[in-house]
Design goal:
Blueprint: H1 8-17, H2 21-38, H3 45-54, H4 57-77, H5 85-93, H6 97-113
């Protein structure tokens, strides 16, 4: 089961306008979609979100983890897999997590649009 394509500008704008609340929903949806697509039953979107809220450094781990899952998804649909996990973590560490969000969503959109 593939996930939903989301407009990157809309995702960024909604995250900024809602002071990050939309980003929390996005965090949950992306985790759930990747879990379902890759059939990773050990991946729990609710727990991932809760851990990211309660333990801020976990957000960096989540970005790394999701970036690796995106790469695995790219391989599954026949797209040349690109490991952006380190780039996404560096961006997040320097306060540009929203850019990481856009990169992840862009990669996911390419995956979901594949037949």
């Amino acid at each position: 089961m593939k996930g939903e394509t989301r407009g990157i500008p809309v995702t960024i704008i909604l995250t900024l306008v809602t002071c990050g609340i939309y980003g929390l929903f996005w965090h949950y949806w992306v985790t759930r979609e990747l879990r379902d697509f890759l059939d990773k039953r050990d991946l729990n979107p609710g727990v991932e979100l809760l851990m990211s809220i309660l333990c801020f450094p976990y957000c960096f781990y989540w970005i790394y983890k999701v970036s690796r899952l995106v790469m695995e998804s790219q391989e599954r649909v026949g797209i040349r897999a690109e490991d952006r996990s380190v780039l996404n973590i560096i961006l997040a560490v320097f306060g540009l997590a929203i850019v990481s969000m856009a990169i992840i969503q862009n990669d996911l959109n390419e995956i979901w649009e594949r037949p």
